[in-house]
Amino acid sequence: MLKTFPKGGIHPHENKITASKPIKRLNPPKVVYVPISQHIGIPSEIIVERKEKVTIGQIIAKSGGYVSSNIHSPVAGTVTKLDKFFDSSGYKKQCIVIRTDQKDQSNFEFIDKPLKTDIQLSKKDILQLITDYGIVGLGGATFPSHVKLNIKKDKHIDCLIINGVECEPYLTADHRLMLEKAEEILVGIEILMFALHIDKAIIGIENNKKNAIANFKELTKNNDKIKVAALEIKYPQGSEKQLVRALLKREVPKNGLPLDVGVIVHNVGTIFAIYEAVQYNKPLTERVVTVTGKTIKDPSNFWVKIGTPVIDLINEVGGLPEDTRKILNGGPMMGKAIKNTDVPVAKGTSGILVISEEEAERKKCTNCIRCSECVFVCPMGLEPYLLMNLTEKKMYEAALNEDITTCIECGSCSYVCPSHRPLLDYIRFGKSIIKTLEIAKDKK
Questions:
Q1: Strand ranges (DSSP E) for 145-278?
Q2: What is the pLDDT of residue 301?
Q3: What is the 8-class DSSP label of residue 267?
Q4: Which of 147-156, 250-259, 277-286, 406-415 has the lowest mean pLDDT?
Q5: CA distance 170 to 13
Q6: Do 128 and 222 belong to one domain?
Q7: Is the pLDDT of residue 387 over 80?
Q8: What CATH number does residue 220 fall under?
Q9: In this structure, how many other beta carbons lie within 10 angstroms of the beta carbon of residue 50?
Q10: Residue among 244, 243, 329, 232 at smallest CA distance from 287
Q11: Which tens digits make up the pLDDT trace of 45-100?
Q12: ∠ CA(13), CA(272), CA(298), 5° rounding?
């Protein structure tokens, strides 16, 4: 029987049109724009200067604090600017601009490394490498991995969950990685199990990826410690709290973490990055990105250098269609529109979705008809219609009391609303205002 979470959820049209497209390697761009804030937490601190020559993998920005992450140069070249540019947030952020050295062969040598299964480092050394090489969560949250793996003595962890769900429509980066790098991912799982002193891991994969499920089941058939679980196709199954509930029937407390119920959750992309860091001393300088859309000429999956302008990816799939209305960083449910195609790929960029004029058209918002559909589909048990109303009326204290901050921003409520009300937009706005007010309180 397929596993799933019990409360809420929807099944949007999948549109996984790149699921059968093998990952191709995108050539290094002429210029990379590397943001110094590609993770949750404090921005990194720049340690290079203008006109300085850098090599691939060289650290160019050091962690700005405990909840922060190192950033490394994705190319060999010369630092040309230290300035602010638009990133996927829509705001100008500090970037390190590097002109790629077209004569340096290291920029163009892409060799698939042989599988390396021996784990020769100690737990301490493994965690140090994950810290040093700037590994963050690649499922979208970009939480620094070394923070997640630094378990306090009062916490007991008995299970590692590997998130291979990728429930966001259109995106297939994780799916392709599971098909093409399954053995490396399994070694990455073994590395973390060794480092965390746990002997149980579960790989959760939605049932629309039957070939990935079969692949892992075949590879783990003689392994009692790593299990593969097929999950019902239901969004937002990939959210940590919903995934823990689906696989282990453990309820992560409100405003709590999987750690509170003895679990650590990592995305398959993060696991692969950990494998490369530990086994091959490779910093996080590239990732898999799905570039897709119904009107795109050749939608594909790519290995992309961090800092690559989005326009380079779009040109690689045949250019921007004439009827393009919107470009999203991410999928249609939780992705956010980008300001222009010069925005760089960052560690958290899992997909670029091009949406046509017809698809992007918003229907007219009308009055709430009290149907409660938004309540039925909310996986967190909230009342989205109420949270929108409270935000609209600037009743932020009341919204906080109604648990607005526990919203995971999955967009299920907006998806099902027959009145086409922008529920998620208002809830996101309300959360941002509350966060600002709380920060202001802390400073007093």
A1: 159-163, 201-206, 226-231, 263-267
A2: 98
A3: E
A4: 147-156
A5: 9
A6: yes
A7: yes
A8: 3.40.50.11540
A9: 12
A10: 329
A11: 999 999 999 999 999 999 989 999 999 999 999 999 999 999 988 889 999 999 99
A12: 45
Using CA atoms, how far apart are residues 204 and 101, in angstroms rounded to an integer? 41
Give the pLDDT band (50/70/90) at residue 375: very high
What's the pLDDT tens digit per position in 300-313?
999 999 999 999 99
Q: Are residues 129 and 164 in the same domain?
A: yes
Amino acid (one-letter) located at 22: P
Same structural domain for residues 157 and 242? yes
Classified as helix, coil or strand, 24 is strand
Q: Does the global pTM surpass 0.85?
A: yes
At 433, the amino acid letter reads I
Query: If DSSP codes are grouped into helix, strand and coil, which group holds residue 363?
Result: coil
Q: Packing angle between helix 423-443 and helix 384-392, nearest 10 degrees?
A: 60
Residue 166: inside a domain: yes
Three-state secondary-structure class, residue 411: coil
Q: How many residues does the chain have?
A: 444
DSSP tag of 57 = T
Structure tokens at 267: 């995305």
- Closest-CA residue to 237 (of 215, 257, 208, 260): 208
Q: How far is 200 from 204, CA to CA, in rounded Å?
A: 13
